[in-house]
Write a structure and sequence with these properties.
This protein has helices at about 25-35, 40-55, 75-85, 95-100, 120-125, 135-150, 190-200, 220-240, 265-285, 295-300, 335-340, 425-430, and strands spanning about 10-15, 20, 25, 35-40, 65-70, 85-90, 110, 130-135, 155-160, 185, 205-210, 245-250, 290-295, 305-315, 320-325, 345, 355-360, 370-375, 385-390, 410-415, 415-420. The chain is α/β, with parallel strands linked by helices. It has two domains: about 5-35 and about 305-430, Lyase, Ornithine Decarboxylase, Chain A, domain 1, CATH 2.40.37.10; about 40-300, Alanine racemase (TIM Barrel), CATH 3.20.20.10. Strands 4, 14, 15, 16, 17, 18, 19, 20 and 21 form a nine-stranded mixed beta sheet that branches. An eight-stranded parallel β-barrel has the order 5-6-7-8-9-11-12-13, surrounded by six helices. Strand 7, helix 5 (about 120-125) and strand 8 form a beta-alpha-beta unit. The termini are far apart. Bound molecules: pyridoxal-5'-phosphate. Pyridoxal-5'-phosphate binds near residues 68, 211, 214, 295 and 298.
Length: about 450
């Protein structure tokens, strides 16, 4: 058995020695749909949603699990998480549009972002967006003006930057003092933001929000963020009678990309978050707010597997062997962006020992287009199907057309069936929005 815990639940291999995801033979699927192919396992997504719902319900009746849709913003996956009872957060007008297309009631959409444009805000307000998470003084004034014009009231949260450093890659930290996001605690900025928000006639400040980073393994960082947030709530309560009804403590739970990764469980995460809020709030004799969390990566990350076709194999004796695949940084930029680690295997040789070391590279014109350094796989040959697990979050979401690469097809696998949820782009799509000088 060469596949391991980094693959979706219900992964196995069949008598032909092919990798199977929930009854779908990956090699057959690829022969029908081509590569690169992004495969999501529906059961794994639903399972994560249910784990979150279950774990939080063990600690409180008043909570909301919000899917951070930027991890993979697609109509079908939004439909799925809606069915599982989650709300959704969006970080742009485009993600808002996709969530609406999936049928999300606007009231259950949270709108984030450090630079929402007036057009994006107007679009969301017109649709009746549930909550705007306000990121700056400038946005506070802009939003008040836009809502006033409509003669409405809008519920908002304020994004607070608690000034703590999570143990994660510095590019995916967002909660430290030097951040483009949110209101910092230094110089009384956050307190002043609460004061001003409460004074706005058309904005209803119902709570606070903080998201300290992503791919976090050590829950201690969340505990400290909650401590800091609740201290702020206490101060604003004492000074302005601020009543925090919603406390959104972000997403950030890490997932396993390689076997050695040891992320915390959803159960442990729920306990730290809910009990942390309860302890801190009750120490100040403040009522328990609704606890909101926004997982993205941990909902879809492990459900996704990308399949490629092996092409050129270049052996440099005594140095290394490069194995090229027909995708790379255009469908997964995380190794280059964050030094992200992955492992993989040959789906058509799932029963063979992983006894060969190769460096898996993409087909793009950049030396940094390396997907995995020193991967251990079965002996590769051109035409083999190479799969990389744990590509469900921030991969297709960040895909590009670099080198004129049509973006891959995406399928959703369930019980032996694979349904295309995003079609593969064609060469025609690549030029569809281009206008010739001859026109
Ligand atoms: C990205 C993001 C999330 C989701 O983070 P994950 O690490 O994918 O769980 C949640 N909230 C906000 C504001 C974000 O920007």
């Amino acid at each position: 058995m060469t596949h391991t815990l980094v693959y979706p639940i219900a992964t196995s291999h069949n008598a032909a020695g092919h990798l199977e995801i929930d009854g779908c033979d990956v090699v057959e699927l690829v022969s029908q749909l081509g590569t690169p192919l992004v495969m999501y396992h529906e059961g794994s997504i639903r399972d994560q949603c249910r784990r979150y719902m279950q774990a939080f319900s063990e600690h409180t009746d008043d909570f909301e699990i919000i899917y951070a849709s930027k991890a993979f913003s697609s109509v079908a996956v939004n439909e799925l998480v809606l069915e599982e009872g989650l709300s959704v957060d969006v970080s742009s007008g485009g993600e808002y549009h996709i969530a609406k297309a999936a049928g999300f009631p606007a009231k259950r959409i949270f709108f984030h972002g450090n630079n929402k444009t007036p057009d994006e805000l107007r679009y969301a307000l017109t649709g009746g967006v549930g909550f705007v998470v306000v990121d700056s003084f400038q946005e506070l004034d802009l939003l008040e003006e836009l809502v006033a014009v409509r003669g409405e009231q809008q519920r908002i949260l304020l994004r607070i930057t608690p000034g703590i450093e999570a143990h994660t890659h510095s590019y995916i930290q967002t909660g430290q003092v030097d951040s483009k996001f949110g209101f910092g605690l230094g110089d009384g900025v956050a307190v002043e933001a609460i004061r001003r928000a409460l004074a706005m006639r058309h904005l209803m400040l119902v709570g606070l929000h903080a998201h300290i980073g992503s791919q976090i393994f050590q829950l201690e960082a969340f505990r400290r963020a909650i401590e800091i947030l609740v201290r702020l709530i206490g101060e604003a309560n004492a000074r302005f009678d601020f009543n925090c009804r919603y406390l959104n403590i972000g997403g950030g739970l890490g997932i396993r990309y390689v076997d050695e990764d040891m992320p915390s469980s959803i159960g442990e995460y729920a306990a730290v978050k809910v009990e942390g809020v309860r302890n801190e709030m009750s120490a100040l004799h403040l009522p328990m707010p609704r606890v909101l969390i926004e997982p993205g990566r941990s909902i879809v990350g492990k459900a996704g597997v990308t399949a490629y076709t092996v092409g050129t194999i270049k052996e440099i004796p005594g140095v290394r062997t490069y194995m090229s695949v027909d995708g790379g940084m255009s469908d997964n930029i995380r190794p280059m962006l964050y030094d992200a680690q992955y492992q993989g295997m040959l789906a058509n040789k799932a029963d063979q020992p992983a006894d060969t070391t190769v460096t898996v590279v993409g087909k793009h014109c950049e030396s940094t287009d390396v997907l995995i350094k020193d991967a251990r796989i079965a002996k590769p040959e051109p035409g083999d199907v190479f799969v990389m697990p744990a590509t469900g979050a921030y991969c297709y979401a960040m895909a590009s057309n670099y080198n004129g690469s049509p973006r891959p097809a995406v399928v959703l696998i369930n019980g032996g069936r694979a349904r295309v949820i995003i079609e593969r782009e064609s060469y025609g799509d690549l030029v569809a929005k281009h206008r010739s000088m001859r026109d």
